[in-house]
Amino acid sequence: METTMKSSHLGRHDVLAFSLILAASIMRGIFIFLGWPWTNSDEGTIGIMALRIAYHGDLPIFYYGQHYMGSHQAFLGALFFHLFGPSLFALRLGLVVLFALFLASSYILARLLYTRGWALFSLLLLCLGSGYVMARELSAIGGYTETLLFGSLLFVLSALLVLTYRPRSFRWWRVALYLLWGLVAGCALWSDLLIAPFVCMSGVVLFVVCWREFLHGWPVLLLLLGLGIGAFPLLYYNLHALPGQDSWSVLNSMRGSQLSWSQKITGLLNTIRISIPLMTGEPFCPLYGKFVYLAPVVQYTRRCQVLMDLWGFGYCAVFLIALCLACWTLWRTWRQGRQAPGEEQAQLQWRRAILHAGLLGAALLTIYMYAFSNGSLHDPDVHARYVIGLLVCLPALFWWLWQGITAQIEKKRWPALVGKGGCALILTYVLVMSLIGPFLTAFGEVPQAIEIARRNERIVNTLVQLGVKSIYTDYWGCNKFSFLSQERIACVGVSDELKPGRNRVPGYLELVQHDPKAAYLFSASSKYVPGTDISPANSVVHKNIERYFQQTGRKYKRISLEGYWLYLPQ
C-alpha cells in the first residue's frame, strides 16, 4: 500500500473518475428511460408507496408487507415524482443517483487505501457489469442499491477517522465524522439488514485503531446518538411491535430453521456456482430459472453451468489469496509499527492494512450469512441479490492483482515475470467480461423492454377506458398494473385456488372484494387460463378461471387484451 498520504487537490485521475461516473450514470439513465429492466409487482409496490407519500402524506416505515426493509426508495421516488411527475422512469431516477454516489464513495475509498491508478481502474469495473447486476442496481425493489452506497460510505468515514487519528490531539471536525458514521449506520440498518457485515467490520476497525479515543466516552455517545437518529423509525417500530412481528423475528423466520450439514454444503456450493457468478458480473448466463419476471433471463444450458463454475470457483480462489495476503500484510505492518512506534508512515501502513482486511472481512461475513441460509438453498439465482455487498469489496478483492502488475522487478526473474503476467491476465479477463456484460444482455434486451413497456401501457389504458377499477390477477402483475395506472386500478393477487393470496398494499383487498364489477386479468400463458399445460410435478390442483366461474355461478365476458385474457363481469 502507498506509504504517503494522498494530496487533496484534484488531478487527472479525479477528472477521469468524474467522467466515468457521469458516463455510467447517463448509460443507466438511458436504460431506465427506455424501460429496461422491465418492471414487476415488487417494484410496483415501491411505486405505490411513493405515490402515497407524494400525494397523500403517507409516511411508511417499511416496504409494504415486510417489517425489515426500509422505505428509502419510496421517499426518493416521491421526491422525483414532484419534480418530473409520477412514472416508472421518475421512480428509478433515485436509484441512478444512489448508484452515482456509490461510485464516487468507492473511488474515494480506493484512493484513501490504495493508489489513484487502482482507484480509477476499480471504478471502471464497477461502472460496467452484466445485465443481471445492472438490473438489480436499477430496479426499485428495496434495499439493494442502498446497501452499495451505505456499505461504501461506512468504510470511507472509518478510513477518514482512522487515517487522521492522533492519540494525543483532539480535532473538532472528528465530532462530526463520528456522528455521521452513526447516522449512516442507523439509516443503513433501517434500509436493509444485509448491510450488517459492513456496519460490523467498519465499526471494529474504528474501535481497534481509535480505542484510546473511545476511552474518553464522547465518540461512543456520538456514535450511539447518530445510530439512534438514523435508525429511529426501525427502533420505534420494534419497540411497539407485537410479539413475533418485530424485524428480528421476521428475519429469523425467513432464514429458516437450523440447517443440516448436507444442506449447508449444498447452500455453499449454490453460492459459489450460481449466486456469486450472477452478482459479481458473469455476463454469459445472467439468470436461469423459472422467474421470467425478474429479467434478464436466458435458458439454462450445460455450457452456462461450466462458465459459471469457472467464474465462481475462480472468484473464491482470488478471494482466498486476497484474505491470506491481507492477514500477512496486517501482521507485517503491525510488527513494523511496533519496532518504530513514533514513525508516522509505519502507522499509516498498518491502518490501511486493517481497513483493507476489514473490507475483505465484510465480504466474508456476507458470503457466510447467505451461504448458510434458506436463500442459497431455494432459488439461488433469484436470491443472488442478497450478496450484492460483494461489489463494495471489489477494490480490496483485486488489489493484490494490481500490486502484482505494478510491482518493480529489478532483474528478469522468470517466476516474477510469470506472476506479473498471470495477474495481468486475470484482471484483463475481468475487465473484458465487464465490457461485454452491458452489450451482451442489457443492450440486447432493450427492444424487448420497450415493447413490454408499451404493452403494459396499452393494457392499463384499455382497462381505464373500459371503466375497470378493480382486478384480480396473479401476484407479479398485480401491483405493477396498479402503479402504472397511478392507483386508478386496485388489485388483489390470487392464490393457486383463485383466492386472495399475498397482497401487500393496505386497503386493496377490502376495496376489490367490495367491488361487484371487479374483473379478472390473466396472461394467456397463465395456469389460470383454460388450455394451459400444468407441470405434472406440481402437486397443487389448479383451478382455471372458467371452471371457477361455473362453480360460483358468475357470468363474465372474455376479452383478448395484449397477450392477456380479461374477464369482465356481466
TrEMBL record:
Q: Which keywords belong to this entry?
A: Membrane, Transmembrane, Transmembrane helix
Reply yes or no: does the keyword Membrane apply.
yes
Presence of keyword Membrane: yes
Regions that span the bilayer: 15-36, 89-110, 117-135, 147-165, 172-189, 195-211, 218-239, 310-331, 352-371, 383-402, 423-444
What's the superkingdom here?
Bacteria
What is this protein's record name? Glycosyltransferase RgtA/B/C/D-like domain-containing protein
Source organism of this protein record: Thermosporothrix hazakensis
